[in-house]
Each structure stands twice: as C-alpha cells, then as structure tokens.
C-alpha cells in the first residue's frame, strides 16, 4: 500500500475504460478504495498515501429528461386505458407533483399521510439519503390521495399501502405498465425516474429557489439540484434585460459605491 502511486490509479482507470466501464462507475470504484485507505489512516493510524485524491475521472452531466404538462396528461390518459390503469395514473400524477422517488411512493403507508395538513412523511429507511423529510401536497397530489383512499375503502380497507392492489398487497413495480404507456403515448426515452426530473424542471421554470427544490427532492447538497439551473429562464431573461438600458440610465453608474452595490445585486439574482 505504501508503494501505491498516482500512476497506478491512472493505469487502473485506463484498463477499466478499455473494459467498457463508464467514468461514473470507475469513480465509484476509486471512491471505495479511497474510503478504505482513509479508514486505515484514521482508525489504524497507518501512515499511508492516498493517491486517489485528485485523480477521479471527469463525468458527463447528469441526465435531465422531463416532459410538459400536456405530455403528462397524454401519458395518464393512455395509462388509464391499461390494466391497473387507475393505479398507474395516480402513481404518475403523484410523482410529478411531489418529486418522490419510485421506492418512496411504493413504500408509502397511510399512517404517513396527513390529509388534514396536506403532508406526507417519509421515514429515513424509505429515502435514498436515509433522512426523514416531509413533502407538502398540492391540490393535484391531494386528488391522487383521495382517489387512493376511495379505492382502498372499496376493495381492501385494511391495506396499509397507499399504492396497493385490489387484494391489499403493495404494488411491486409499475415499470412494465409505465413503459408500455410511454410507448403508446409516443414519449421516447422516458423512465419512471424522469417523473422526478419533470417535477424539478417545472419548479425551476416557475422560479422556485434552488434551496427549496433541494429540500423538497431530498438532495444531500444544492449542487445536485443545480443540474436543473439551466431551466431557470426567467432569471436569465431578467439579467440580459439590463443590457437594454443605456449606461447613463442605470442607477449603478452614479458612484463607485452604487456600482459595487449594483454588481452584487446582479450576481445575487
């Protein structure tokens, strides 16, 4: 381990690339090695070098695939025409109105739903970040919950699951029906997880601050949310509109302090 050097890390990365592995996969492997080395340094007080540091590979930008409201409506119409279509329709509409992940919704129990306060509570074991979070329900999401409650009352009042079959068992995975619906609706290259991207995209376009979107989606850092920043068109339009004004009309050119204050305000927006 003391002989492990940067050239070894680079050679390993090259071999994995030749084996057809993606930069993201290689970085996850290098991260595991780095954690092991750091554990030895901290817990066992070994004086080891960590040549992984600074030698991870550049990864492409994360996938951001989303659809419009009219496309969601079209997808839901097709979904309703399929077997178990009412469940799939509700699943799609809840996803795009809450940003929940597939497993978060499939594991949602009625005891975690507060209809009076329009909230759902996700326990740590159901979330990717292993942290509790609360999600507010807008009117569209409330309509889904009322639909699910009616279905439960009619077929299996004792079922604890929000998304359940007629026999009360939890829905295992709607992926097959979802893929069929997207194909029939003519929506290409669209996965269940992209429903979460759709929710985020709608929020960014509407001008919701990144920090609030981060909290809703349960991202561990705002950097994860920033991949949607390019959709914040209103902020960009406001910024470039400043260029339409003659400099003599700008309140930021009167004095040095004003220019500095104006620059800070422009940056902050």
Summarize the helices and strands and which ones pair or pack.
Blueprint: H1 6-18, H2 23-43, H3 69-80, H4 85-98, H5 102-106, E1 113-114, E2 119-122, E3 133-136, H6 139-155, H7 175-185, H8 193-205, H9 210-217, H10 222-225, H11 233-241, H12 256-268
Antiparallel strand pairs: 1-2, 2-3
Helix pairs in contact: 3-4, 3-7, 4-6, 4-8
Overall shape: globular
| Strand tally | 3
Number of domains: 3
Rg, nearest Å: 24 Å
Compute the number of helices: 12
CATH topology of the largest domain: hpI Integrase, Chain A
Unreliably modeled segments:
none
Please identify which CATH superfamily of the largest domain we are dealing with.
Intergrase catalytic core
Structural class: mainly alpha
Side by side, the strands of the main sheet go 1-2-3
The CATH class designation of the largest domain is: Mainly Alpha
Provide the succession of SSEs: HHHHHEEEHHHHHHH
Q: Termini distance?
A: 49 Å
Approximate strand percentage: under 5%
Overall CATH architecture of the largest domain: Orthogonal Bundle
Main pleated sheet: 3 strands, antiparallel
Output the keywords:
3-stranded antiparallel β-sheet, 3 domains, hpI Integrase, Chain A, 12 helices, 269 residues, 3 strands, single chain, mainly alpha
């Amino acid at each position: 381990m003391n002989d492990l050097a940067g050239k070894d890390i680079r050679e390993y990365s090259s071999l994995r690339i030749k084996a057809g592995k993606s930069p993201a996969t290689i970085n996850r492997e290098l991260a595991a090695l780095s954690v092991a080395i750091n554990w030895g340094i901290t817990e066992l007080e070994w004086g080891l070098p960590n040549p992984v540091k600074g030698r991870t590979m550049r990864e492409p930008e994360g996938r951001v695939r989303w659809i419009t409201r009219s496309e969601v409506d079209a997808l839901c119409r097709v979904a309703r025409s399929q077997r178990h279509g009412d469940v799939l329709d509700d699943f799609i509409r809840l996803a795009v109105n809450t940003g929940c992940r597939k497993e978060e919704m499939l594991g949602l129990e009625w005891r975690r739903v507060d209809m009076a306060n329009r909230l759902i509570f996700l326990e740590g074991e159901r979330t990717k970040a292993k942290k509790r979070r609360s999600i507010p329900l807008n009117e569209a999401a409330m309509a889904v919950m009322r639909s699910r409650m009616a279905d439960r009352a009619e077929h299996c009042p004792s079922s604890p699951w929000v998304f359940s079959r007629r026999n009360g068992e939890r829905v295992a995975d709607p992926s097959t029906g979802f893929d069929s619906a997207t194909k029939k609706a003519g929506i290409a290259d669209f996965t269940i997880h992209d429903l979460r991207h759709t929710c985020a995209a709608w929020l960014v376009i509407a001008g919701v601050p990144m920090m609030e979107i981060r909290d809703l989606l349960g991202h561990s850092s705002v950097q994860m949310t920033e991949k949607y920043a390019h959709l914040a068109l209103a902020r960009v339009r406001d910024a470039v509109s400043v260029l339409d004004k003659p400099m003599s009309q700008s309140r930021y050119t009167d004095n040095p302090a004003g220019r500095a204050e104006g620059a800070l305000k422009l940056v902050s927006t």
